[in-house]
Amino acid sequence: MLRRPSRWSDEKSFRALGEVLRARFPDLPSGFTLREGLAKARVAEPGLDWGEIDKELVSYEGYRYGGLPETGGPQEAISLLISALRRSGK
Amino acid sequence: MKQKLRDAVVGEVAKALVSREKETELLLVTFLAEGHALLEGVPGVSKTMLAKSFAKALGLQFRRVQFTPDMLPLDIVGGFVFNMKDKELEFRKGPVFTNILLADEINRAPPKVQSALLESMQEGQVTVEGKTEQLPAPHMVVATQNPIEFRGVYPLPEGQLDRFMVRIMLGYLPLGTELDMVRRNMSAADAETVKQAVTAKEIDEAFKGVRTVKVSDDVLDYIGRLAAETRTDPRVGLGASPRAVIQLARCSRSKAYVSGRDYVIPDDVKTLVPYVFAHRLRLSQSSLLTGDHLDTVKITQEIVEKVSPPR
Predict the structure, then answer these.
(1) Is B264 close to A35, i.e. CB distance below 8 A?
(2) Is residue A57 domain-resident?
(3) Are residues B270 and A64, on separate chains, in Cβ contact within 8 Å?
(4) What ipTM was reported for this prediction?
(5) Which of B29, B105, B124, B243 has its CA 20 to 30 A from that of A40?
(6) Residue range B235-244, pLDDT digits in tens
(7) A1 falls within a domain
(8) Inter-chain CB proximity B305 and A30 less than 8 Å
(9) Domains in chain A: how many in total?
(10) pTM to 2 decimals?
């Protein structure tokens, strides 16, 4: 059973994702972008719903860099990815 | 619409050129950012063909000038000639008066000829004998040059290099791809097969669209930190100029636009840094003396892996 983080804001979810990516893939350079980190995660966790993860990423980027409103949604796919990366990194 | 324009131009140029999609997109990004491009590579890697095909795909007015050691500035910008009929001096426009100027082998001409392009590239105008003439808009210089190690070349001065928004290095194609090129060449595919892929209205809309692309403060800060890193790196004697910072921001907007977004993400910036910064950097004296096979492209690639982007 995967433990999901509680409902976070978009920013908090993606900040957590950045930290998990760095911990899970120590070879990522300090200048990595979320997209680069996710490209590595895609190879490591092919069974996840990557269509949904990409959608949540694009909507986060719109908020983070485009001044669009925060989705305020639960970021289900990102939460599952964080859990999966934490689990596989142990 | 945004990606359609990119796909149309890249697809059309691909009819004449094999495996140069990335370079074509970079040319388009530079064009829409109102910049100029320097294509560098050994002879025979399709630099001229790329520039010609690109201009044809855009359907804009195009002139080509072959730079030679015996050229004079007036061969580029034009000059005054005496009109026998009217008994007056009249200005005869040079080849720079065009939408896309292909400055072929720019570093075969001496510095005073290369410098004749400075005003046109920066201001979109030409001044001769105190008379200023506006160039047609849009105006883009696509220059090609051979590597500096080659014989009979004059290196472009820093001030001239800084005017080029990007430098695109063209290398040899992988063997399989090169053979595809040979096959295509034997079936007579060349720049003549390229047709106009976009309308003037679509180009105009794209220029307007690029200007509305948002660059957040965090992304601007990222661009600034990347430039600052080039100035403090001990291997670099001359870092990125303020003009380079502005051009990276503009180019990033254009890259975001052709990717179908109306905001810049850090990946846009990161991808473009080696193209926008590397040709403007000069290695420090100590780096040159140690001869560690350093080059500025490698340094910029290391810098983007070191500087944290906003996430």
Answers:
(1) no
(2) yes
(3) no
(4) 0.88
(5) B29
(6) 999 999 999 9
(7) no
(8) yes
(9) 1
(10) 0.90
